[in-house]
Design goal:
By secondary structure, this protein is α/β, with parallel strands linked by helices. The chain folds into 3 domains: about 5-95, Udp-n-acetylmuramoylalanyl-d-glutamate--2,6- Diaminopimelate Ligase, Chain: A, domain 1 (3-Layer(aba) Sandwich), CATH 3.40.1390; about 105-315, Hexapeptide repeat proteins (UDP N-Acetylglucosamine Acyltransferase, domain 1), CATH 2.160.10; about 320-350. About 15% of the residues lie in helices and about 30% in strands. Strand 39 (about 305) and strand 40 (about 310-315) form a beta hairpin. About 35% of the residues are buried.
Length: about 350
């Protein structure tokens, strides 16, 4: 699809400097801009490229001052916030790109399933018994929705995602490829023969509205009750969330984090990559956990910032790290002091 500078400026409520009728059909980074592409300038580090880019349209802030002439082929659209405006266009572009409707003849859909209006279900997708799929939702090829599951309105499930039975997914969610929701929690009980007997996992998973789940992330079903991902949570790729975990509203978690069973995480938390969190603890609201930290106990302080393994308050960690880095020098100093003490003792004994 093509859009003119005039159309884009109307969408963003911006001001055009240049050709109102110039059109673009692709998006690009400013340093890689080509004729027919749209880019933006928000970071001053990239300011030099505004004079070199071959992009046809660049979005930039109203306050940006040009220091020299730009190419005649370049049209500018001035806005209040270049980054936010470009993000708006990216979202629209994504919606247009993924705006598919219709049900493939190669999809397998149970007769007892309820399918809403303007839904897309791609080839080889499987929709189980008593499944509900809301209006405007999209299930891409090869995905599987288990029996008795519910998918809300405007939700997208990309190719190769597996949603086990009884899962509930809200409105306006995005589930990326390879995600598995509702597999059995890791529940085993040792017996007298030192073997492990599986504990049946009969709960489910509930995903509330506006949640995004990155590729290959796994969320286990509860043993009893529900594993719950609250409204607005954003999960990166390759995250493991165990049975009966609850993650609070608008919390964000980076890749390769693992959360053990029955842990409750508060709202508005930020958890870095490769964090390990033990089970059966509570994390307060607005907590920030630095990457590669190990959380072995509850964090009760609202807004706490922790780092390390085991994690401690970040100020203590930084002071400890300074000492740790200097351990070789401290060892030399201790050895030197010992030698001097021994010399003093020797001289006194004589």
């Amino acid at each position: 699809m093509k859009f003119s500078a005039r159309q884009i400026s109307e969408i963003l409520q911006g001001t055009v400097e240049g050709d109102y009728d110039v059109t673009v059909s692709s998006l690009s980074k400013i340093e890689e801009g080509k004729a027919g592409s749209l880019s933006f300038l928000a970071n001053p580090k990239y300011a030099e490229y505004i004079y070199e880019t071959d992009a046809s349209i660049v979005i930039l802030g109203k306050d940006f001052q040009l220091e020299k002439e730009i190419k005649d082929s370049l049209t500018l659209i001035r806005v209040e916030d270049a980054y936010a405006s470009f993000s708006t266009l990216l979202e629209m572009y994504n919606q247009v790109k993924n705006n598919k409707t219709g049900i493939s003849e190669e999809a397998t859909i149970s007769e007892s399933a309820s399918i809403g209006e303007n839904v897309y279900i791609g080839p080889k997708a499987v929709i189980g018994n008593n499944v509900t799929v809301g209006d405007n939702s999209k299930i891409f090829p090869g995905s599987c929705i288990g029996d008795n599951s519910k998918i809300g309105n405007d939700t997208t499930i990309f190719s190769g995602a597996f949603i086990y039975s009884e899962t509930e997914i809200g409105n306006s969610c995005t589930i990326h490829s390879g995600v598995i929701i509702g597999a059995d929690g890791f529940g085993f009980s040792p017996n007298s023969e030192n073997n492990y007997k599986k504990v049946p996992q009969i709960g489910n998973v509930i995903i509330e509205d506006h949640v995004e789940i990155g590729a290959n992330t796994c969320i286990d079903r509860a043993t009893l009750g529900s594993t719950i991902i609250r409204k607005g949570v954003k999960l990166d790729n390759l995250i493991q969330i165990a049975h009966n975990v609850e993650i609070g509203v608008n919390t964000v978690i980076a890749a390769q984090t693992g959360i053990a069973g029955s842990t409750k995480i508060g709202r508005d938390c930020m958890i870095g990559g490769q964090v390990g969190i033990v089970g059966h603890i509570k994390i307060a609201d607005q907590v920030k956990i630095a990457a590669q930290s190990g959380i072995g106990h509850s964090i009760e302080e609202v807004g706490a910032i922790v780092q390390g393994s085991p994690a401690i308050p970040i100020g203590d960690f930084k002071r400890s790290y300074v000492v740790f880095r200097n351990l070789p020098n401290l060892e030399k100093t201790i050895k030197s002091l010992k030698e001097k003490i021994n010399e003093i003792k020797s001289s006194v004994s004589q």
